[in-house]
Structures are given as C-alpha cells and as structure tokens.
Design brief:
The structure is a single chain. The chain is built from ten helices and 15 strands. With 362 residues, the chain is of the alpha/beta class. It folds into three domains: 130 residues, no CATH class; 60 residues; 128 residues, D-amino Acid Aminotransferase, Chain A, domain 1. Strands 7-15-14-12-13 form a five-stranded mixed beta sheet. A four-stranded parallel beta sheet has the order 4-2-5-6, with no helix packed on it. A four-stranded antiparallel beta sheet has the order 8-11-9-10, with helices on both faces. The protein starts with a helix and ends with a helix.
Length: 362
C-alpha cells in the first residue's frame, strides 16, 4: 500500500473501555476530499494513554480527556481524521493536511494529555489554516491555572486552588501559598463528573487521605445552599463570541451532577420552570453581576470554545466551579418532563458551533 494511502487518516478501535472522561467517535466512511483548495475540517484527537498509529478498521475510537462537542456540527461525519498518539514523535509518517482549512482540536484536558497536546502543537506549527482551541491554549487551562487566570473578575467568586504532591509538608506550603481554606474539596488532576477524593474538613483529615506517589488539587469549598437548603449548578458554553446556557441542575446534595435531574428535579415542578426560563433567556436571564462575570471569563479564557460551571450567590454574583473545554454536551434527557433541554437546546447549540467554525472571531 502506498505510504500516503496507508497514513492519510488513522482509524481503529483503540481500547475497550476508558475510565472517567472519554467520548466515542463512530467509525464511518468519509466523503472524498475536494479537488481544489483547503476547504475541509480535521478533527484532532488522541490520548496520552494510547500509543501507535491507528489503522483503518471497524468499531469505535475512544478519546480520554476529550469532549463530545464535535457531535454538534451540522455534518459531523465530514472530516479528516488527525490522530496524535503519545509516541507521535517516533512515528515516521505524518498526516496530510493539504486539503484542511480548519483543525478542530478535541483533545481538551491538559492534565490527562500533556504529551499529545505538546506534540500536536509542534506538528501544527506552520499550518496555514485555523486551529480551533489550539493545543497551547488548552495546555494553559488546568484547574489551578484557570483559578489564577480568572481571579479578580468583577462579579465572579473564584475559590482558591492548590496543587501539590501527596506529602504533608508539600501540601502545607501549597495551601498557604494559594490561600486555600477548609473545608476543601480534594481531587486528582484530570478528574471530572463529580469525581473527588473527599470533602475534607481540616488539615488532619487531608493528611490521612494523601498518597505520596500522587498529585492532588485542593479547592476551597463554598457552601451555596439557598433558603430551602438546596444546591444548584449552571452550565454555560461559549462558542466563539456566542453563549448558550446548557442546564441548571438543582439538588439536595452539594456535589450537583446530571443524575440529579431525574432523581431530584423531577419531583419539583418549580425548579423545572426556573430552568426552562433560564434556558430560554440564556445569558440575559442571569443577574447583572453574574452576566458581567461570564463576559469577563470569555474575555480572559484563551479558548475558542469552552464551558463554565457555576452557581449564583444571593447577591447576584457567580461562584466558579470550573471552566474548561472538557465539558460534555451530551447525553440529552429523554424524560418528557425535560423536553426543553433536548432538541431545542441542541439545535441552538448546533447553529452557534457551526458559526464558530466558520469565523475566526472570538
């Protein structure tokens, strides 16, 4: 087989299962490239947990530390595959981007995929087209770095975050330097979907949880319970210069996530109505301080697309949970009580995502 034919795109089933954050790309046939000029979009994917060239074949491709937002494209099947594994530098053949105008980077977690992102950055140097969510920009969006980047935005409360190896003396220094207060949320870098080590009340309990071989992130916990002792979380996406509110989840548990919709909100029509109204109004449905905060986050974040998880405080300000490009848009709820969170929001997001890919404005 000619070299170009063999490596024009990389496709194969990579793994049976990836834990934590992953998405799957169905393997499908792609339309032939255009005869003239750069007009196509390439999907950049890869993982530090995978090595070797991906060959043509059936099945699926799994990408740990990525996003499912590519599914929002009006024609998600029309793309050139740009696969970069962790040992990309040792692979002699290189992908051909002669027909590519835009590279859509879907490697979004700098904690899980620093090697792939660094390799992608080097490979794309000199690429004459556009790179959406450049690898260098993604590398700057670890949880602790974003905390420092967004601190000081008017209307936004940003809890302190400390990073340290799991040794008590190192933890103490990092906590004091970052200004983290207790209680605090202990996590491993690269974890999402509410996965934490523990909510620790103080230094002694923290020390008991540490493993010297591991790295940790510790975030000051802010209690956002309202008068009804309920918690909530709003997710807002930025697609270039356009925003969209994806959901507002309400729960009787502080670690609010997707399953709380059916478990808790289903029995509370009031909160269903509140969420529906916010999704209809979008950014304009937020209190003025929180609205200005979201605009401030957009101005500082180096990414073309990303999500923000936050809560509203009684004075109208926003409490930041996280901001990054790894937040998934799917799945959509199939519960008829939440039909407003499905097709209507997907259609609105698709329009904004397509527009972002068509323009260089951010």
């Amino acid at each position: 087989m000619p070299l170009r034919g063999k490596f024009s795109f990389y496709i194969k089933a990579l793994v049976e299962h990836f834990a934590r954050v992953s998405f799957r790309i169905d393997l499908i046939s792609m339309s032939p490239p255009p005869q003239n000029g750069r007009t196509r979009i390439a999907h950049l994917f890869g993982s530090d947990s995978q090595s070797g060239v991906v060959q043509a074949g059936g099945g699926t491709v799994a990408n740990e530390g990525g996003t499912d937002l590519w599914r929002l494209r009006s024609d998600p099947r029309d793309f050139v595959r740009l696969h970069i594994p962790r040992n990309f530098e040792r692979i002699r053949a290189r992908p051909n981007l002669d027909t590519v105008a835009t590279v859509l980077n879907l490697v979004t977690d700098p904690e899980l995929n620093p090697r792939v992102l660094a390799a992608a950055s080097r490979f794309l140097r000199g690429f004459p087209g556009r790179v959406v969510n450049s690898p260098d920009a993604v590398l700057a969006t670890g949880r602790d770095r974003v905390s420092r980047l967004l601190a000081g935005i008017e209307g936004l409360v940003v809890p302190a975050v400390a990073r340290f190896k799991g040794r008590p003396h190192l933890a103490k220094v990092a906590i004091e330097r970052a200004g983290v207060t207790f209680p605090a949320i202990l996590r491993r870098p690269g974890t999402h979907n509410g996965e934490i080590v523990a909510l620790v009340p103080g230094p002694e309990e923290l020390e008991a949880r540490l493993d010297p071989a591991k790295t940790y992130l510790l975030t000051s916990f802010v209690d956002t319970r309202d008068a009804d002792a309920l918690y909530h979380k709003i997710r807002l996406y930025w697609f270039g210069a356009a925003s969209l509110v994806r959901h507002m989840l309400v729960s009787d548990r502080w670690n609010v996530h997707g399953p709380d919709r059916e478990r808790f909100m289903g029995g509370h029509p009031h909160w269903i109505g509140v969420e529906r109204t916010l999704l209809d109004r979008g950014l304009d449905g937020l209190p003025a301080p929180a609205r200005q905060a979201m605009l401030g986050v957009r101005a500082r974040m180096p990414l073309d697309y990303f999500g923000i998880d936050f809560a509203l405080l009684p004075d109208g300000r926003a409490l930041l949970f996280e901001a990054n490009a790894t937040m998934n848009f799917y799945p959509l709820s199939t519960d008829p009580r939440f039909d407003y969170t499905g097709a209507p929001i997907e259609a609105a997001a698709r329009t904004l995502f397509d527009r972002m890919l068509e323009t260089a404005d951010r």
